[in-house]
């Protein structure tokens, strides 16, 4: 659905440029837009433009960076018209200029001289993104009428059939998540890398999906590589592909994720797990856009937008020498930090209700909601495994019980017991007894790795193989489990 159907009244375009002829030229873009526009408003001085932005409705703002004194000054304009499309233009274009303008609040950037068609296409793309709130938010109790009221100042109305915006899978209206939605919308159209950080289960993959779905690359592929889940010696071939005979078992040539993502997006999940040698190959790829398949001499070039994610603190990883500093700065251009669920408790019941509705329908149970005690406990619990843990908990409750309301007694012991450890996976008394045992023959002592393996496998059994839940209960990261598993395989193989 095009933007022409999304607006009920003429679109207001404002152009700020100290050169009157340049301003008039940019303003002529209104003739090229598919939406109905009122007469564009032109400014040559920042003060009068700022004044108007604060008092009047603005749908599109085209700003010349030299006129406002640089990209840092842009923020003052962006905060006055938070729901407008802002296109920054400048005679001094560079990638870093574009990135810093977008960080300061612009949605896109153009280097002068630009064609009116290009400006029109950027504005139209952004107007098309001005879609209503995610469906999930509607499910959380906001009526279409309220939405219409809330958005009346931007004259946006619900499209007749709400198109998937990529954000609809992200649930939660807390202020912390609203900031994230806004960042996603602003960053999606850019070509610069996005670096997502956040604890396990906070929705980093959903966020990457939303960035791709809202970008111009959405008709091409989003290819995901989980660097923690793939054995180290296979990651390079998974990312860059290989030719026949490159290693034992390489019976055919194969394109890697980078090639498959040509024209689209390459999502490198758990990038903190990538080893240093491969990091340097990735850096070369980012610098040149070129790479070689494993075992190949031919150089290939692709155009893939990079999104990466980690649940580690990337700067600590750099300080510890586990992550290349130059790669970090190359990737950490547009950062998104996903808040843990315990820091946005307002979202817990909305998420829980959504999962309850979904699983009750799937499992054919009659659940409609939660009683007050269950709600209080769900809200107070710390959710170390974040949204994934909440989702799995609700599924477990739905499968194991039936009724109209979820009661306190139906909550798993781990959630009901504030100490969080009773009846859990690791039998501490057994571990202590083992430690206190009298001296024994060397060969009777179970090696540490075997003890770890047993404890981790116990935890995985307790959560039906769910790595995130097991990791949360063991208070380690899921990637530690992946790594340990890999080292056990290496021992046995
Ligand atoms: N805001 C949210 N709304 C709805 N579902 C969510 C949200 N955040 C996460 N989830 C759900 O929680 C689960 C975990 O999400 P996701 O895989 O995106 O997290 P992650 O941060 O990438 O985790 P990890 O670091 O372990 O890979 C998924 O099933 C996802 O659908």
TrEMBL record:
Keywords: Activator, ATP-binding, DNA-binding, Nucleotide-binding, Phosphoprotein, Transcription, Transcription regulation, Two-component regulatory system. Pfam families: AAA_lid_14 (PF25601), HTH_8 (PF02954), Response_reg (PF00072), Sigma54_activat (PF00158). This is Two-component system, repressor protein LuxO. The keyword ATP-binding applies. It comes from Roseibium suaedae. Residues 14-127 form the Response regulatory domain. GO terms for biological process: phosphorelay signal transduction system; regulation of DNA-templated transcription. CDD domains: AAA (cd00009). Residues 170-399 form the Sigma-54 factor interaction domain. SUPFAM superfamilies: CheY-like, Homeodomain-like, P-loop containing nucleoside triphosphate hydrolases. The modification 4-aspartylphosphate is found at residue 64. One of its GO terms (molecular function) is sequence-specific DNA binding. InterPro entries: AAA+_ATPase (IPR003593), AAA_lid_NorR (IPR058031), CheY-like_superfamily (IPR011006), Homeodomain-like_sf (IPR009057), HTH_Fis (IPR002197), P-loop_NTPase (IPR027417), Sig_transdc_resp-reg_receiver (IPR001789), Sigma_54_int (IPR002078). SMART domains: AAA (SM00382), REC (SM00448). Signal peptide: none annotated.
């Amino acid at each position: 659905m095009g933007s022409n159907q999304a607006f009920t009244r003429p679109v207001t375009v404002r152009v700020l440029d100290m050169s009157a002829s340049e301003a008039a030229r940019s303003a002529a873009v209104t003739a090229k837009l598919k939406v109905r526009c009122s007469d564009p408003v032109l400014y040559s001085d920042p003060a009068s433009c700022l004044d108007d932005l604060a008092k009047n409705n603005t749908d599109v703002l085209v700003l010349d960076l030299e006129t406002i004194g640089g990209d840092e000054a842009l923020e003052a304009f962006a905060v006055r018209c938070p729901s407008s499309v802002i296109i920054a233009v400048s005679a001094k274009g560079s990638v870093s200029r574009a990135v810093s303008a977008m960080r300061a609040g612009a949605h896109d950037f153009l280097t002068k001289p630009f064609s009116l068609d290009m400006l029109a296409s950027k504005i139209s793309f952004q107007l098309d993104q001005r879609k209503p709130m995610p469906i999930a938010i509607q499910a959380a109790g906001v009526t279409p009428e309220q939405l219409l009221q809330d958005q009346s100042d931007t004259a946006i109305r619900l499209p007749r059939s709400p198109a998937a915006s990529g954000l609809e899978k992200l649930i939660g209206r807390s202020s912390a998540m609203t900031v994230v939605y806004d960042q996603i919308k602003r960053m999606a159209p850019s070509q610069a890398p996005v670096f997502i950080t956040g604890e396990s289960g906070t929705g980093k993959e959903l966020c990457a999906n939303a960035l791709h779905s809202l970008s111009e690359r959405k008709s091409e592929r989003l290819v995901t590589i989980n660097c923690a889940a793939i054995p180290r010696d296979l990651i390079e071939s998974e990312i860059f592909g290989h030719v026949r005979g490159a290693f034992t078992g390489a019976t055919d040539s194969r394109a890697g994720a980078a090639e498959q993502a040509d024209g689209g997006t390459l999502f490198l999940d758990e990038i903190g797990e990538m080893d240093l040698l491969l990091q340097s190959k990735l850096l070369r790829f980012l610098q040149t856009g070129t790479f070689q398949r494993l075992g190949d001499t031919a150089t290939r070039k692709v155009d893939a937008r990079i999104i990466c994610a980690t649940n580690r603190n990337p700067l600590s990883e750099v300080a510890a020498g586990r992550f290349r500093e130059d790669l970090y700065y190359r990737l950490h251009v547009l950062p998104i930090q996903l808040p843990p669920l315990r820091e946005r408790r307002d979202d817990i019941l909305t998420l829980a209700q959504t999962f309850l509705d979904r699983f009750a329908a799937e499992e054919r149970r009659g659940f409609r909601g939660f009683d007050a005690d269950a709600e209080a406990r769900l809200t107070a619990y710390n959710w170390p495994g974040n949204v994934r843990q909440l989702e799995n908990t609700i599924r477990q409750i739905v499968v194991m019980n039936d009724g109209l309301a979820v009661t306190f007694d139906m909550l798993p012991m781990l959630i009901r017991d504030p100490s969080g450890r009773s009846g859990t996976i690791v039998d501490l008394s057994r571990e202590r007894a083992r430690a206190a045992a009298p001296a024994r023959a060397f060969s009777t002592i179970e090696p540490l790795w075997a003890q770890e393996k047993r404890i981790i496998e116990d935890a995985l059994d307790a959560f039906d193989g769910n790595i995130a839940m097991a990791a949360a209960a063991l208070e380690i990261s899921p990637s530690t489990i992946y790594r340990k598993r890999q080292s056990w395989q290496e021992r046995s193989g």
